[in-house]
Amino acid sequence: MIAENALPRRRIRAANRRGIRDGRFAWLYLSPALLIFAVFTIGPALFVLYISFFDWNLLNSSLSKFVGARNYRDLAHSSDFWHSIEMSAYFVGAVVAGSTVFGLGIALLLSSRGLVRRAVRLAVLTPYFTPLVATSIVWVWIFNPQFGLVDSLLRMVHIHQVGWLQSTTWAMPALIVYTLWHDLGFTVIIFLAGLSTVSNDLREAARVDGARYWHEVRDVVLPQLTQTIVFVIVITTIDSLQAFTQIYTMTQGGPLGATTTTGFLLYEESFVFYRTGFGAAIAVVLFLVIALFTLLQLRVTRSRSN
Amino acid sequence: MHRHRKIVVAVVAALVAGVAAYAAYGASASTHATINISFMEAMASGTQKPALDTLTKQFEAQNPNINVTLIAEPNYGVLLQKEQAAVAAGQPPTIAQAYENWAASFADAKAIIPIGGYVNNKKIGVKTADQQQIWKGVWQDLFLPDGKIWMWPFNKSDYVMYYNANKLAAAGQRVPKTWVQFATVAKALTKNGDWAWSTDTGTPAAPADGTIVMLSLIKAGGGTWIANGKPTLDTPAAVKALGFLADLKKSGALQLGTNYPGETALGAGRSAFDLSTIAGYPYELAADGGKFPMKVAALPQGRNGQGNAMAGTNIVIFTKTTNAQRAAAWEYMKFLSGAKQTAYWAEQTGYLPVTKAALPIMKGYIATHPYQQIAAQALQVARGNPPYAWWTEAEGDLTTAMQQVLDNGGDPAHALATAQQKALAAANG
């Protein structure tokens, strides 16, 4: 009896020892990456949190003064900050809605058979792989009121020229159009992946029952794509909250703050006007918002894999 | 015993003599030891890089114990970031190019040193007669509000008026000399889908030519940018200047754009003028492409004269440097601003000579490039950025006011009052 029990116990102990040893090796192998992550990501992030409590002197930190939560109080009372939140909501809302609707629409078109399918897929995906700075500058010229393509087309149909990037009304829509043009390829890929998991049997059954294409999409495809749609919404929201390059290149946050999102305000306060502590407070708030969406994304991804 | 003592004395004497000789050698060697200095600059494009390289080699040949390392950055934006990062990391270069407001923030952070002690030094300084040869505007630009000299001039430019001579001739118009004439000519040239002048106000984060021209207009109209260390953006002259631009915009003579719209529109033959810096001459010429004779004239005048705004940078010496490096850096800075060197620099790059003494040397060049003299003489009246760290923000507030009026039809007085409030808040910290 003793001998019968001793065997499994010994095996368990050996397995435990192996587990501990494997665990140690795992940490050893992970340590270079962890070190880099700690030094270049965690460390700076904690440092940003630290300086958000200071009137920070970028050039001579010994002249910095501890101000407690003053930067956060200033943030709460800053009209520029709340305006940037509005602009971020405008930008994020439009980009997320546009990416989801157009991305799904294009993916549905591409998932059906057709001769031009590959060409269209290439055309939609290519912008996503182009550098943001270079294509932003091209779009600045497309939107040029005197010499740009868009206004030239409008003039052909006798519509008065619009200063797209100079107008408080049109600058944000122009930025959104560019962002959708650039990023749509990514959401199309995700939706195509999602569509490949939709049951063909159910779609065929719906067709046999006489369902039209729209009914098939609404009642069969969309319910099976729910998690993909949520994933796209979350990931596009995070990306849009972090958008900076196209705003910097195309509008510099203008005109009159019409494209100053919270991400751009953070840059402006920290690196143009050198209110580094205040900028750090904006960074912390933005981090918390993005962290919230990241947690949501993780939950969605986990539920998808389950 | 006696003999042993003699040997010991001889050995000690030999040792002392040896140590003394070594010390003397060391002293002489240190006198001739190479002093390394570094110069962080943004003169990396076109003819600027070879011109600076040539001048630096000439300096090193004349001063074999000084080695200058040029640290070239692609543009002023990157240059500022690199300088700030270097200062924050405690490893600044010996010297660097700096605008007036950069110098002010560096001085606030105790990162640069005042250089009046070098400038006015009887042995190694610049003689009073030579100081007086430096253009008045350039000289005034070397001081911070504490009255000390913190900067030394390097690459300077100011604003001029580029124009399409054919367009003016075809419309029977003369080159405007005053802002009132400019408005009349501009409106006369606005017809058949063409207009007079395109500009970019920029944004609060990056004010552009339009904002600088507005500053020139304020000065020309008798207004000020600052007074008693505080911004003065809402003076009657400023309101009048913005009203002037709004009127041009309303008439269609002024069009706004981005990415150097003045250069593009003038080059395309759609507009007649561009108001920009003389350093942009090669780019204006390239945009023109030989399609029409592009001429250069002085910026129009107001009741207070030309009111030109100066562009370009000075050089500063950083605090974390040895005395030997500072002295070597001063020699290099003085060399670059010498009449012969600044003349060479101007002829090679299109920047302006910082001293009047360079003009006789440039006689041949000016005969073929008369615009250089027009722009150089304007350095007498041109003013640089006010040397305050908050000026960047105040200038951005002025840009916002311009956008409110020119793009959104706002009231100039109200827009400038708002800008003044914000600029004052920035100035008060």
By DSSP, the count of extended strands of chain A is 2
Q: How many strands, which pairing sense, and closed or not: the largest β-sheet of chain B?
A: 7 strands, mixed
Distance between the termini of chain A: 42 Å
Q: What value does the Rg of chain A take, in angstroms?
A: 26 Å
State the helicity of chain A in percent bands: over 70%
Count of beta strands of chain B: 13
Please write the CATH class name of the largest domain in chain A. Answer: Mainly Alpha
Using the coordinates above, name the CATH class of the largest domain in chain B: Alpha Beta
Helix content of chain B: 40-55%
Key terms:
heterodimer; A: mainly alpha; two-stranded antiparallel sheet; flat; B: 429 residues; alpha/beta; D-Maltodextrin-Binding Protein, domain 2; 7-stranded mixed β-sheet; two-stranded parallel ribbon; globular
What does this structure look like?
The complex is a heterodimer of chains A (306) and B (429). In chain A, strands 1-2 form a two-stranded antiparallel sheet. Helices cover 75% and strands 1% of the residues of chain A. The two termini of chain A are 42 Å apart. Chain A has 2 domains: 2-51; 73-305, MetI-like fold (Orthogonal Bundle). Chain A has 306 residues and is mainly α. Chain B has 429 residues and is α/β, with parallel strands linked by helices. Chain B folds into 2 domains: 35-157 and 311-378, D-Maltodextrin-Binding Protein, domain 2 (3-Layer(aba) Sandwich), CATH 3.40.190; 158-310 and 387-427, D-Maltodextrin-Binding Protein, domain 2, CATH 3.40.190.10. Chain B is 50% helix and 15% strand. Chain B contains 19 helices and 13 strands. Chain B has helices at 2-31, 48-62, 76-88, 100-108, 116-119, 128-133, 136-140, 165-170, 179-189, 209-220, 236-250, 261-267, 281-288, 323-336, 339-349, 363-368, 370-378, 391-406, 412-427, and strands spanning 35-41, 66-72, 95-98, 152-164, 197-199, 202-203, 206-207, 226-227, 230-231, 254-256, 273-277, 294-298, 310-317. In chain B, α10 (209-220) packs across α11 (236-250) and α12 (261-267) runs parallel beside α13 (281-288). The longest helix of chain B is centred in the N-terminal third of the chain and has 30 residues, at 2-31. Mean pLDDT of chain B is 91; it is low at 23-30. The A-B interface holds A 57-61, 63, 137, 140-141, 144-147, 163, 165-168, 251-257, 267-268, 271-274 and B 81, 84, 87-88, 105-106, 108-111, 198, 202-206, 255-259, 261, 264-265, 268, 270, 389, 392-393, 396, 400, 403-404, 407-408, 426.
